[in-house]
Amino acid sequence: xQLWMDVMRxxxxxxxxxxxxxxxxxxxxxxxxxIGPLVFNxxxxxxxxxxxxxxxxxxxxxxxxxQVYKRLGVEPPPAPAPMPExxxxxxxxxxxxxxxxxxxxxxxxxxxxxxxxxxxxxxDEQTRAATCARMVDTLEHYPMADGAIMDGPEWGYEIAPxxxxxxxxxxxxxxxxxxxxxxxxxxxxxxxxxxxxxLFEGLHNLNPARVRLHSSGGLLGAFQLLGGDADLLAWxxxxxxxxxxxxxxxxxxxxAERGRPVKLGVGPRSAAFAPLCGYDFxxxxxxxxxxxxxxxxxxRGFDGMVGTVYRYVETLCEWNPGLSDKDxxxxxxxxxxxVL
Length: 340
What we know:
Shape: globular
Radius of gyration: 22 Å
Structural class: alpha/beta
Order of helices and strands: EHHEEEHHEHEHHHHHEHHEHH
């Protein structure tokens, strides 16, 4: 087993005291550091804290190298405000991490990506090239990094209406821009949209007898609970194929562009939600070096497993007044295999 530390969205907190922190980590047996996104915080501290909020827009930690973006046929992002002292301290911190024997991985190395294309982000070649260029630029600028970790993209998995403007809302997952993605993978876009709409309608027309009949019946029971809809299963499979193809494209681009070996990690949802988001752990493991499933068990905020189950139950009961919490939990069990 290895012990890693994750410094996320507050790099100054580590930079400003890195020698003492690294000495303590070494004594405690820490093997690696994940750090990022590589942005500097605003200058002003939050009242009563030692941390400052992230600047808006975020201040990137280095100037883009135009040659990297030129090689990939994309525009570089604009140069950030110069912060020479902070930049020097960050590089000193990362060098010190290596001197302490730590592996260093950059979280969201694509942060600060320049303009891409107008198509869907999962299939637009210009958008993917812009993402890859930024990752290459980041890794070239920080040669002490051993790898990069991508936090998404992914398809949505929430059904609560108040998620409608949030990236995780499942029923906004098939905009017209996704049509070329469907076509490239051999799927009928119109059929998938119709299946999505039938799922939305079906989840508004559940009754206790139907839920109790099918919810404990495994795959076949869940299939009947959702209307025995073959196009719905095709939509779920499309989510997996499209996301797998996206990460394969990033992997190929990094392999072609990088000047040194570097590893790539991806942070999928926890296993229960991962297939709905498009993650197939076995397929990803064929070309991704490390998978970091988000086992977020908390209830509040976004992304927590218990919170997502709570919102499913709450939403299903609102849509179907005849359902009890127990019935709604039966639907969740049928969909995700979770038993609480």
